[in-house]
Every structure is written in structure tokens, then in C-alpha cells.
Amino acid sequence: MSLPFEYDRLTLAEFGGTTPTTTDFANARVVVFPAPLERTTSYVAGTRNGPHEILVASSHMELWDEETETDVHSIGIFTLPEMEFPYASMEEVVRQVRRIAAEIVQRDKFPFILGGEHSITPAIVEAVAAKHRGVSVLQIDAHADLRDSFMGSPHNHACAMRRTLEHARATQVGIRSLSPEEASAAPSLPTRIFYDFNMRDRVDWIDQVVDSLSGT
Questions:
Q1: Looking at residue 5, what is its pLDDT?
Q2: What phi-psi label fits residue 116: left (phi over 0), alpha (psi between -120 and 50 degrees) or beta?
Q3: Is 51 within 8 Å of 34 (Cβ atoms)?
């Protein structure tokens, strides 16, 4: 697999820590792709730290799954190095994320992406949808992220789901923050929104969410 940057494998954090069952890329069924992007965040910084902190925390987990009675690592998990983002434009960031995600998917591996701000989401969904037609997206979030453009960019984090809907339909769960622009556009977009105020003190929405997703 070709990457747009150099790295030292010995310095990498592995998902679940290094174990006797740690595998290489060729034999992995799951590929962890850390993408610590922090480019368009508009409130609190820190998304760039997300992938590393998740990987470090994962080394303290027990990897035995009591429901399936299997060692999670036994399926073959490979962790890529953290992606670097020296690119001048968000358009190039999107292209590079999409390229790496597409390589993972085209080799019949399950992509497990760690962000990073969620402006990387559309590129990943595009790569997956090209291989798996009819895929749908489940978003669990307070924000709708359906703006067509924000702060002068269509690739801003506030536009993540609007761009995602260009490649797959979605179900958005827990939404409680959106602009008049988003509220006006939502009915004509390929998404079903479960608003937070309609979910409180109810459980019937759970089956509705599941039924709205493809392959369920």
C-alpha cells in the first residue's frame, strides 16, 4: 500500500497494543486508519489528538469479547501510521484521504477510521460507496452538519453530512442544533433525521433507526 508520507513502523501506536496476534497489512481483515485532521474546527481545538489518544487507550482494553468468545485481534487488525496533512487546501486533503480509504476498501478490508475532525467523513464514505453500492450512513451527533458551505469552504466540518449525502443516504440521530439553512434544505435531502426532542423518554425510535439503514 502506498502512502503520501514516510514513517517509522517501530514508533507507531497499534490498536490494542502490540500482541502476538498483531498482523501485517496483507493478512489483515481490519485496517485502522488514524486521520488526525484539525483544519476547520471553529470552537475548541484538539481533534488532532483524537487518533493517538484512542490508540493509546486501546492498549489498556481487554481484547476478549465475551459475547462471541473470540479474541478481537484474531481477525487480523493492522494499524496504519497517522496520516500527515501538509497539503495547502482542503480539496487536496479530501483527495488524499479518499485515495487511502479506497485502497483499503478495494483490497476487501474493513476500514476503521479514527478522526480527527469529521470533514474527512465524505471522502471515506465516497470510497466505501464506490465498492459497496447502496451503503447508508448512521450519524450520531448533536449537529446536523448539513450546511452547503461554511466559512467559505464546502469542505468545512459543518458541511460534513451535506457532502456525505452526495455519495450515500444517511440517518441522523440525536440532532438538536442546526441553522435555518439546514432546516430548510433537510426535507429535500436523502437523509432521515431523528431529533433529540423526539427521542426523549421513548425507545420506539431505536427500531425505526435500524429499519432506516440499508442491509437491515
A1: 58
A2: left
A3: yes
Name residue, grid cell 432521515.
192
Q: Hey, how many other C-beta atoms are within 10 angstroms of the C-beta on 34?
A: 22
pTM greater than 0.90 (yes/no): no
Share of the chain above pLDDT 90, in %: 72
Residues 110 and 188 in one domain: no
The torsion angles phi and psi of 80, rounded to 5 degrees, stand at -75, 160
**Domain assignment of residue 127, yes or no:** yes
C-alpha grid cell for residue 61?
Answer: 482494553
Show which of 99, 133, 167 is a domain's final residue: 133
Q: HEC profile for 86-127? A: CCCCHHHHHHHHHHHHHHHHHCCCEEEEEECCHHHHHHHHHH
If pLDDT is split at 50, 70 and 90, which confidence band does 21 have? low
State which of 90, 106, 133 marks the end of a domain: 133
Q: What is the mean pLDDT of the chain?
A: 90
* Total tally of structural domains belonging to the chain: 2
Domain that holds residue 160: 134-216
Q: What CATH number does residue 100 fall under?
A: 3.40.800.10
Residue-wise pLDDT for 100-143, tens only, equals 999 999 999 999 999 999 999 999 999 999 999 999 999 999 99
Buried b (16+ CB within 10 A) or exposed e, 145-178: bbbeebeebbbbbbbbbbbbbebbbbbbbebeeb
